[in-house]
């Protein structure tokens, strides 16, 4: 517990230090440090500007019960619940009532695959869910169902996504009425399990370089699907190894004799429906070779396979022809004039996959944080002499690990809810500006959130000590199953470049051979005055009210197209100058590569600003005053922790003076302590049932009893 604030204090492990008026400078610093280590304190208004003010220890929170804690959790839960929470609860109840569908801690790859398919079939046929109908009519409910399925087993969530977001989504988004009429019901009711065959052995992110071909034969009115070399084998194709009967195959559409000089014409990447197994016997069809990609680091409930095609013939109608079609006489038509425009339109229709991955990654983060925080509240280690041990969450180091992570889970929740809402509106309106916004936002949030979640799971495991290493406590499975979220539906580094490219879109003219003058003048005019010299007065402001002001936080983070703010604007300004410099000697591609790390930092900065802006808006929109106060506390911790982690950037350009940097650090520690006081309520507010948490150390009650029972006592 905290020391009594007398004139003398003890240095841990040493003798009492003399009274303050007799202390040497070194002893005085040690005394203050000992108080600070035991408990952070927030600067009072009277002392906020005085660097020599004494630290005032706060009461230890080890046994503190937040007044009205249950009410806080209930109010938070009510605010966090989306429109489709009832649909999620129905699925949770369904799986809870079906022990035969619950994934055990240990099982073979083959058994996990079969269980995962039974889970999906039961969800569709027994629970009555129609995911493809939901995706077409109410994407928000579809993503809620996907999150719930992933809570039961992440492999199930991914397998559902392969069947409906990818295979089904490609048919309804890239095809036309004839395809929807023929395939929609069979996909929806799982009669037609299918695959999404885009990635090849030699190409993943660079989709335009895929080598599989689809050559039109005007004699038979068919396309001939062919794998020209080993590098073109379709690889990592979900549902292919065991269960899939169809595949959407991405291939180069080749028209014989229609190129220059009678050469074949390559019309670019198109999507084709290719049957791969017999609907009745499930035998692999002639000309198709399927091999199993084998046991993986995680997601072993998903059967990934490799596909080779040897002159496989399909009807001309199997071309998904929304953006390009071939007539009976072999003539190509499209409403889009170039290969690049058709390619962009095709990939743009598949953005829902990234939306789902970002949304579900937040669900994984919530589970990891809940387990770690509940265990940290349960676990007691050490304490003052001759007094009870204290909760490990009362240690400042533990608060530093987990409380900003808890704040981030709230920030990401609101950001991805907004993303889903925008995606739903985009599908209704087909508004071009909204399409562009969702493309960039989904790219950035998917990359940023999945990377953060992957790192956080390991931190949570470490925070739970040896018990975190037990498979039953789930961190290993969460880490392994989630890890690939950073890669599929777009490699995170590639996606962040898309965000940076949007922020620097005027540079695209240079990459096509244009000039930089327009871009340079824009940057100079819009940012020059703002960035020339930070305000020396505000750079030194360190009062709590100022640091917790949303306007200060957004100003430090953000840039938008009309009002450039500080950090992202500084990055944008500097990377533009570097690109201009290097393009003269290296060309557009070389300049981009030389500045790549800078561009990635720019993209991450922008996404952080988007997340913070939405968090602030969500706090303002909360109708309950007490709940709003708690969310404001969490939001402030999220913002100031991010600023502190990038404090070098602000200090290097004198945006933050040394005294202000210290105040930010101290306030961040204090806010972590304050969030710790409501940590139980914050994790309980996620309202995830024990079936989803599953880890004994993460249970709301009798955690140790469940843990000992699991191992046989």
From TrEMBL:
Gene3D superfamilies: Butyryl-CoA Dehydrogenase, subunit A, domain 2 (2.40.110.10), Butyryl-CoA Dehydrogenase, subunit A, domain 3 (1.20.140.10)
UniProt keywords, alphabetically: FAD, Fatty acid metabolism, Flavoprotein, Lipid metabolism, Oxidoreductase, Peroxisome, Transit peptide
SUPFAM superfamilies: Acyl-CoA dehydrogenase C-terminal domain-like, Acyl-CoA dehydrogenase NM domain-like
Domain Acyl-CoA oxidase/dehydrogenase middle per the UniProt entry, residue ranges: 195-312
Any Pfam family hit: ACOX_C_alpha1
Domain of life: Eukaryota
Primary site of residence: other
Acyl-CoA oxidase C-terminal domain ranges (all copies): 565-700
Molecular function terms from GO: acyl-CoA oxidase activity; FAD binding; fatty acid binding
Keyword Cytoplasm: no
Keyword Oxidoreductase attributed: yes
Catalytic activity: a 2,3-saturated acyl-CoA + O2 = a (2E)-enoyl-CoA + H2O2
Family: Belongs to the acyl-CoA oxidase family.
PANTHER family: ACYL-COENZYME A OXIDASE, ELECTRON TRANSPORT OXIDOREDUCTASE
Protein name: Acyl-coenzyme A oxidase
